[in-house]
Amino acid sequence: MDVARRDRVDAPNVTRGRAGGGDVVLEVRGLHAGYGRALRALAGASLSVREGAVVAVLGNNGAGKSTLLRAISGTLGQHGGTIARGTIEHDGRSLVGLDAATIARQGVVQVPEGRRVFGRLTVAENLRAGGIAARDKRGREAALRRVLELFPVLRDRARQRAALLSGGEQQMLAIGRALMAGPRVLLLDEPSLGLAPKVVAQVGEVIGEINRGGVTVVLVEQNAAMALAVADRAVVLEVGTVSLEGSAAELADAEGVRDRYLGTRSPPATAPPAPPAATQVQELTVDGLSVNFGGIKALDDVSFVVQPGSMHALIGPNGAGKSTCLNVLSGVYRASAGSVRYGHRELTRLRPHRVAALGVSRTFQNISLSPGVTVLDNLLVARHRLMREGFVSGGLRLPRARRERAAHEQRAREIAALLDLGDAVGRLVRTLSYGTRKRVELARALCAEPGLLLLDEPVAGMTSDESAAMARAIATARAELGISVLVVEHDMSFVMGIADRVTVLDFGRRIADGPPAAVQSDPEVVRAYLGGAA
Amino acid sequence: MNQFVTLFVGGLFLGAIYALVALGFVTIFRATGVINFAQGSVLLLGAYVIGRLHDSIGFWPAVAAGILVAAAASVLVDVVLIRRARAADLGTLAILTLGVNILLSTELTRQIGTDVLSIGAPWGSDVVEVAGIRVPASRVIAGGVALVLVAALGVAVKFTDWGVAMRSAAEDGETASLMGIRLNRVAAGAWALAGGLAAVGGLFLTSFPAAGVTPDAGLVALAAIPAVVLGGFDSPAGAVVGGLIIGVVSVLCAGYQDELSFLGRGIGTTAPYVVMLLVLLVRPSGLFGTREVTRV
What we know:
The complex is a heterodimer. By secondary structure, chain A is an alpha/beta fold. Chain A is about 35% helix and about 25% strand. Chain A is built from 20 helices and 21 strands. In chain A, the strands form 4 sheets. Chain A has a 7-stranded mixed beta sheet with strand order 1-11-10-4-9-8-7, with helices on both faces. Chain B is an all-alpha fold. Chain B has helices spanning about 1-30, 40-55, 60-80, 90-110, 135-160, 160-170, 175-180, 185-205, 215-220, 225-230, 235-255, 265-280; strands at about 125-130, 135. Chain B has a two-stranded antiparallel sheet. Chain B starts with a helix and ends in a 14-residue tail after the last helix. The relative contact order of chain B is 0.19. The chains are: A alpha/beta, B mainly alpha. The interface between A and B is medium-sized, with 33 and 19 residues.
C-alpha cells in the first residue's frame, strides 16, 4: 500500500522482433478521468506507444486500466465516465471527443474485456461484423484468410453460434473479429481473463504473431506473467497514475512489481485476537466444491475451513474463481458438486435469504446500495431479518413498532460509529465518496448481526488511504464483534496484513492454503502471480 | 365449416397486415431499445399522404410518397428526440413516443376533418372467390405484399452487411461500436424501415373493406401491440406469428360474436388482449422472446 512512485527504469530497450523502433503512434498525456463525482479512476496517466511495439499495462483491479482503454477507444461515455483533462493522440490527431465508431475507423480497435462476442450470431457473422467498417473493402477477403490462418478452429466452427464456443475459442473469435477491422493499433482488455493456463499461453503466442504482422498492440492485463512474456515495454498503473515504467524484462525483475503482486513489503499479520462473539459464530467448511458454467469449470474441487472468529482470505488472480466461490457460499450460484457447511447446516441447497437468515452476510464487488436514501435507511434494510413487527403495525406506527424501530436505529448507529461513519448516517448515499460507500456496505452487512461475514473485494478501486481506512474498519469490526470473516481480494498486500489464514485459487483450483507468510513464499503462488518471470 | 374457413383465411390476411406493423415495432426495439408508440400515427400519416396525393399524381407515385414521408417522419422522431435521450430509461422513451403519437394524430385528425379520404387503390372493392371462400382483393394483395416484404427483410437481415451490423448492434451496441459500426446510422435505418412498414400497413388497413383514411386507422394499429408482446418483444419471427394469431383470433371472435354473446358484445376487439395475457401467463417473455437473465 505504498504511495505511487514513478520509478522510471532507464535502461536500453530490450529489442524483440520489430520492437517499437517506429514513431509514436499513440500518445496519452496527463489523463484525468472518472465516473460521476464520487469515483476518479485516472489521475494524470500517461502512455506512449511506438509503432510496432507491444506495450503491457499492468495493475490491480481498480487501478484504472479499463478506464484508460475506454478513454482511448471512446467508450468511456457509454459507462457514464468523462475525461476531465489530458490528451489522447493517434498519429498526431486527437481522439478525445470522437465516438467509438470513428476511432475504430481510424484504425484504433479494441477487443473488449470479457470477449463480448455476438453470441446469437454465427462465428462467420461475427467476423463479418468486424469487417464492416474496414477501410479497405477489398482487403476483407485477405483479412479473413489471415484470421482463419491464425485461428484454424474458427474455420471449423464458422456456422456455429458464437455463444456455443468455449471461453478460449470466444477469445480467439473476439481477437479475430477485431483484426477484421484492419487495426493499426490493437487494444486488448484482459484477454487471459478466466482462461486455462494452456489457452493463456496460446493467446500470448497469437499476440506475438499479430504484432509480427505489423500491428501495434496495447495489452491490458492482470496476468503479469503472460503480459511480460509478450510485451516489449510495460507500465504499471496504480490508483490512476503510472507508478512504474520500463522494458518488460526490467519490470519482470523490478522489486516494485513483486511488491504489488505478492505484497512482500507489508508487515506480518498483527490482527488482534478475537473476543467471544455475541452472535453464534460457527465453523465454515467448504469441501470438494465444484461449479461449472456450461463447459467452463469455474471451481474445481476446492476445499478449505474458516475457523470460528478467524480472518480468512481467499485470493488469486482475476478469473481464479474467487467471486464464484463467494456466490456459492451466499446461495446465489448452485454448486455442481461438493458441500458447504456452516456449523451443521448445508448451505449449497439454500436460497440466498435462507443463507442470510443463518447469520451469513456479504458485501458486493460493485457497490449495491440504494443511492437515493440515507445511510441509516440502507443499514436498517439489513436489520429486516431481526425485526418482528409486520408492515401493518409498522405502517400504522403502533407503539411497539416504533419502540422496535428505535432499538434497531440505535444499533445501526452504533455499528456506523464503529466504522467511522457516525457523521454520515443522515446523508444520502449518493453524496458519499467511493471509499465511504464501501464502508457503508460493510456496515450494512454487519447490521444483519452475522456470525460469518463475506467480503467481496473490499478495497477494489480504492486509493491507498481509503484502503487503509477499510483495513482498520474490518479489523475493528472483527475485534469488537468477534465474528469470522472471509475476505476475497486480489490485492495481496492488503490481505497479508490482516488475514490469519490464506487460501489461494488459480483457474478454479486451490493451489495453496496456510498462514500468510507460508503462502507468500510458496513457489506455486509466485508462479500464478508472476509466472516464469519470477 | 365454410364460415369457419372463410373467417380463418380472412383472419390470416388481416394478421399479415398486423405482422408488418408489428415488425416495425420489433425492428425499432431491437435497434434502439425503444417501445415506439408513435407507430400508429406514422401509419396514419402514410395513409393520409397516399389518400391526399393519389388524385393528382397517380396511385403508385402516391404510395411511394406515403412510404417516404412516413419513413422520414419516423427517422425525425429518432434524430430529434430519441437520440438525445438515449441514456434515459425504457419508460421515459416510451412516454416520449406516446407524446409524439398524440401530437401527430391530433394534427392529422384536424387535417382529415370530416372527410373520408379514399385510398384510391386500383383494386377498389373487388372480391376474390376461391372454392367458395370470399376474401376482399385488397386483403389478398396485402397478404402477398406482406409475404414478399417479410421474406425480403429476413434475407436482408440474414445475409447483408446492413443486417449483420443491425444484429450486432442489437446484441451489444458498445462492442459493435468498437468494431466501427455507427450506432446512430443503424438506429436511423431501423426507424426508417419501421416507418415504411407502417405506411404499407396503413395503405392496406384503409383499403376495402375499410371505408378509407379515417383517424381510426391509427387506433387499429394498436392491435399490433398485443401481437408484438405475445411474439416476444425482440423477435421478428415472433412479430409475424403474433400478428397472424391476433388477426385470426380477432376475426374469428368477431365472426362468431352471436355464438359468443355470453361474453358480451365487441369481443373481437378485446380478444387479442385476452390471448396476449394467456400466452404471457405460460411464457412470460412471449413465444419467441429471449428470456431475461440476471446475474449478481
